[in-house]
């Protein structure tokens, strides 16, 4: 059964030694050693084998270049890959997992030839270079890509009518074009902010230029002063999503009625 890389991070060891090669079983150890150092084949033995532990003060992420060779169904392949990790062992672990995922290479068919820390200016792979940009942004998650409409409840007309009477009727009307302390809310849906004739808007409302839709109203009603900084409106907002949805439903229905 092929050797598999375990789920945990691999451990790094330093092995010093020599194998006694024979004509029948030539040592692969010497093949790779000869590629790295000018060492001749000779009788020898392993002198030491010890695990290498990372420096206690090490903790910063580094770029590591990994030179490797692996055998596939079609032949032998040499590769250079780059990874970001805090230790050499972590970078090699990523290499094994990456090769298994991308090329279905088995762990015992992968030979790590060289691992070396690489300066940011010397990196070659785009996936590593992007981390050197000081203006890099985190990717959007799936939830942030969902349409805002999906997060807005449908709303209940009767409940919205009750909310309007309790929170809005003192300053606004919705069944006529008359203005009170605030502008009329009739025809609010689809209207641009600060455009009701005859009403003295604050500069903040005029300059906002937002078109009132279900989405913009849902966000505005949560915290009006945050949505339009500088507004003179004293309304503190509605924290409950259901109350905002109910009020929007009521305004949609009433705004569509002719006067």
Task: Provide a quick synopsis of the model.
This is Large ribosomal subunit protein eL20. With 259 residues, the protein is an alpha+beta fold.
Report helical residue fraction: 25-40%
Q: What does the main sheet amount to?
A: 3 strands, antiparallel
Order of strands across the biggest sheet?
A: 4-3-5
CATH class of the largest domain: Alpha Beta
Strand content: 5-15%
| Average pLDDT level | 83
Helix/strand/pairing category = alpha+beta
General form: rod-shaped
Q: Count of helical segments?
A: 8
CATH topology of the largest domain: Ubiquitin-like (UB roll)
Quick one: how many beta strands? Answer: 5
Distance between the termini: 81 Å
The CATH architecture assignment of the largest domain turns out to be: Roll
Integer-rounded radius of gyration: 34 Å
What is the string of helix and strand elements?
Answer: EHEEEHEHHHHHH
Number of domains: 2
Please mark out the parts with pLDDT under 50 across 5 or more consecutive residues, or reply none: none
What layout of secondary structure does this protein have?
Blueprint: E1 13-16, H1 28-36, E2 48-51, E3 62-71, E4 76-85, H2 88-103, E5 110-118, H3 126-129, H4 157-167, H5 203-208, H6 214-220, H7 224-227, H8 241-255
Antiparallel strand pairs: 1-2, 3-4, 3-5
Helix pairs in contact: 4-8
Subcellular location: Mitochondrion intermembrane space
Family: Belongs to the cytochrome c family.
InterPro entries: Cyt_c-like_dom (IPR009056), Cyt_c-like_dom_sf (IPR036909), Cyt_c_1A/1B (IPR002327), Ribosomal_eL20 (IPR028877), Ribosomal_eL20_dom (IPR023573), Ribosomal_eL20_eukaryotes (IPR021138)
């Amino acid at each position: 059964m092929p050797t598999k890389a375990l789920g945990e991070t691999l451990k790094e060891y330093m092995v010093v030694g020599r194998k006694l090669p024979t004509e029948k079983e030539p040592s692969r150890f010497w093949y790779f050693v000869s590629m790295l150092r000018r060492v001749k084949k000779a009788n020898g033995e392993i002198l030491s084998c010890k695990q290498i532990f990372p420096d206690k003060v090490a903790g910063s992420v580094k770029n590591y270049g990994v030179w490797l060779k692996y055998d596939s169904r079609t032949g032998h392949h040499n590769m250079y890959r780059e990874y970001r990790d805090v230790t050499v062992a972590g970078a090699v672990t990523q290499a094994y997992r990456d090769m298994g995922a991308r090329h279905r290479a088995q762990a015992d068919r992968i030979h790590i030839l060289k691992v070396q820390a690489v300066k940011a200016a010397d990196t070659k792979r785009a996936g590593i270079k992007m981390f050197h940009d000081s203006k890099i942004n985190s990717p959007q998650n799936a939830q942030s890509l969902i349409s805002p409409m999906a997060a807005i409840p449908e709303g209940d007309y009767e409940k919205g009518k009750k909310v309007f009477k309790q929170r809005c009727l003192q300053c606004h009307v919705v069944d006529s074009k008359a203005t009170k302390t605030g502008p009329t809310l009739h025809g609010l849906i689809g209207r641009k902010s600060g455009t009701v004739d005859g009403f003295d808007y604050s500069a903040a409302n005029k300059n906002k230029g937002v078109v009132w839709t279900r989405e913009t109203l849902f966000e505005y009603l949560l915290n009006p002063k945050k949505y339009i900084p500088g507004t003179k409106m004293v309304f503190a907002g509605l924290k409950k999503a259901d109350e905002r949805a109910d009020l929007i439903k009521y305004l949609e229905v009433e705004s569509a009625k002719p006067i």
